[in-house]
Amino acid sequence: DAGVIQSPRHEVTEMGQEVTLRCKPISGHNSLFWYRQTMMRGLELLIYFNNNVPIDDSGMPEDRFSAKMPNASFSTLKIQPSEPRDSAVYFCASSLGLGEVETQYFGPGTRLLVL
Amino acid sequence: AQSVAQPEDQVNVAEGNPLTVKCTYSVSGNPYLFWYVQYPNRGLQFLLKYITGDNLVKGSYGFEAEFNKSQTSFHLKKPSALVSDSALYFCAVRGIGGYQKVTFGTGTKLQVIP
Lengths: 115, 114
Prior knowledge:
The structure holds 2 protein chains of 2 kinds.
Chain A: E1 5-7, E2 10-13, E3 19-24, E4 31-38, E5 42-50, E6 53-56, E7 65-71, E8 74-79, E9 88-95, E10 105-106, E11 110-114
Parallel strand pairs in A: 2-11
Antiparallel strand pairs in A: 1-3, 3-8, 4-5, 4-9, 5-6, 7-8, 9-10, 9-11
Chain B: E1 3-5, E2 10-14, E3 19-21, E4 24-26, E5 31-38, E6 44-50, E7 56-58, E8 64-68, E9 73-78, E10 87-95, E11 103-104, E12 108-113
Parallel strand pairs in B: 2-12
Antiparallel strand pairs in B: 1-4, 3-9, 5-6, 5-10, 7-8, 8-9, 10-11, 10-12
């Protein structure tokens, strides 16, 4: 199994630009999570989906952030417009479901730098 | 609201010595507890989880964790540390019932000294 795939692995952009992060979950997994990791705030859950439907987006910091999951094998996290404080590592994770003991499998992350 | 505390930002241990990474939690009702490890420039990897039953849980790479309900703790342990164990370790908790978010701790950096 290829694991969770994220692209790009690194992104450098200028303030005000649109940024799109992509994630392909593990085949057969029904739940997908987007996290952000920074030194200051640690690991934060932004949003999660179950069966392609957003379940909880209360962690999305602002309206500049949006996430979609058009099908079971693809999700995007978009930041528009981007700001320097959005610089972080963004992780996508997937699990078999939302069952109580489901283990989450993390992708390698996208390191975003907004100048 | 549920929460996890990892009181140590960093733990240093000599290679071959036993290691402990501490975690305490707060949750309504009984918990499910997890440990994940993150190597540099990598995503988090699952190590082990406590669901129910035996308080001592064994996981990957020789790690184990002990659930202590009275102390609301779930410390990660290994009898003999390896240099390759050096990484960032995250404890996580979620409550039982329905779907509740998994809450991660702030992480503890483990440094194993040769």
